[in-house]
Amino acid sequence: MSTPYYVSPEQIRQDKEDFVHRGIAQAKEVVVLEYQDGLLMVAENPRKTIYKISEIYDRIALASAGRIAEYEALRVAGIRESEIKGFRYYREDVTAKWLTNLYSQHMGAVAQAWDTKPLEIELLVCEVGMTGDQTASEAGNNQIYHIAFDGIYSEEEKYAVIGGRAEAITEILEQNYTDGLEMPAALRLVTDTFQTVEADTDTDNYEITPQTIEVACLDQAAGRRKFRRLRTEEVADLLS
Questions:
Q1: Cα(first)–Cα(last) distance of the chain, in Å?
Q2: Across-strand partners of 63?
Q3: Of the residues 13, 116, 189, 195, which has the fewest C-beta atoms closer than 10 A?
Q4: Whose CA is closest to 188, among 167, 209, 159, 161?
Q5: Is 13 part of a structural domain of the chain?
Q6: What SS3 state is found at 83?
Q7: Which strands sit side by side in the sheet containing 38-44, from one edge to the other?
Q8: What pLDDT, on the 0 to 100 scale, is given for residue 133?
Q9: CA-wise closest residue to 149 among 192, 126, 119
Q10: Which stretches of the chain drop beneath a pLDDT of 70?
């Protein structure tokens, strides 16, 4: 009788982590950061047929880096579960923390199954707070959760970055980000950071323009639905 083939759980986990990181390393970045009136979300995304940032519920948005098909499945599931919970109970019960836990459980279960491929994706779950007379950045009750492929998540403050060059972008933001930015200044900070990283790593002189980025925000001053997607013309006006 032959000896069964054995691979240690640690090796399986390491192989899956390496597999996912190779995919994520090729993904364009997404930045979420606090600005004066809420949360600004910017993704490097020259393709107009897909979105990397989407509305989930009243005050909640979802951003991703990685495989678009897997993001779409998670986006649809998040909208469905949020609508069901909000209808059965109260709309205020649908929170970013609750949604993050749902995503974490699902992504962790997929990653731990020995016979399935892990999800090649990172997520940012974002929620803008209800701040009354205070600005969003002053109140400090916005929430940004970063979920890795294995379901492990962390709560970020002020800003968060996902994608292949997230570390390089985070280092630049650490040096240049300040509290209370207005939307034009916050958007210019992100686009300048994208351009700096592109100049360091891209030999084709790729330029960041309103046509190559996707921009949305969670605006605390809006009505019940806080999410707003900015048109290319609006982005151009803000950058000018």
A1: 74
A2: 53, 124
A3: 116
A4: 209
A5: no
A6: helix
A7: 159-162, 30-35, 38-44, 213-219, 227-229
A8: 46
A9: 119
A10: 1-7, 131-140, 202-204
d(CA 226, CA 129): 10
Q: Which DSSP state fits 91?
A: G
> Tokens 């240049």 — which residue?
176
Amino acid present at 113: A
What is the rounded CA–CA span in Å between residue 161 and residue 173?
Answer: 10
Within-domain flag for 231? yes
How many other CB atoms are found less than 10 A from the CB of residue 8? Answer: 8
Q: Are 181 and 192 in contact (CB under 8 A)?
A: no
Q: Which residue has the tokens 């960041």?
A: 208
The CATH number of the domain where 213 resides is what? 3.60.20.10
Q: Provide the pLDDT for residue 131.
A: 61
Q: What is the mean pLDDT of the chain?
A: 89
| Counted domains in the chain | 1
CA distances from 193 to 2, 187, 231 (A): 57, 10, 21
Tell whether 3 is covered by a domain. no
Contact 163, 30 (CB under 8 A): yes
CA distance 27 to 146: 16
Query: For residue 36, which amino acid is it?
Result: Q
Predicted confidence at residue 15, as pLDDT, reads 78
Return the residue matching tokens 């949604």.
Answer: 99
Containing structural domain, residue 93: 29-239
Per-residue pLDDT of 35-90, as tens digits, reads 999 999 999 988 888 899 999 999 999 999 999 999 999 999 999 999 999 999 99
Q: What pLDDT is stored for residue 137 in this prediction?
A: 47
- The CA distance from 148 to 182, in Å, is 30
